[in-house]
What does this fold into?
Amino acid sequence: MGFVGLTIAGVLVYVITQLSLPTWSLLACSFPLFLGAEGFLQGYFKFCAGFAARSIFDFSGSSNEKGKVTDKEAHNLDMRKAMRINLYSFVTAAVVTTIIYLAGAV
It folds into this structure.
């Protein structure tokens, strides 16, 4: 998801600048940037926010262990970590989008 989001954002910026579309059009890259940041941050933290939301776990990469998170406290901790990743992704996308927008306005 990380590379895909960044690639889509890069293509959007390229197309928008090549077609001389209005500068505000560059704001369209914010969602792909969010997806890109989300993918890279999940990889960095080795944690899937989607799994947390569904109360599941999958350690198949290390121990072939898969299952459902049944402990409420563990699920709450997982959700807090997922929300933190979402927040970091949002802030990252906002900052990068702002930089792209300001660079395009020059």
Residues 17 and 104 are 8 Å apart (CA to CA). The chain has a mean pLDDT of 92. Residues 2-105 form one domain.
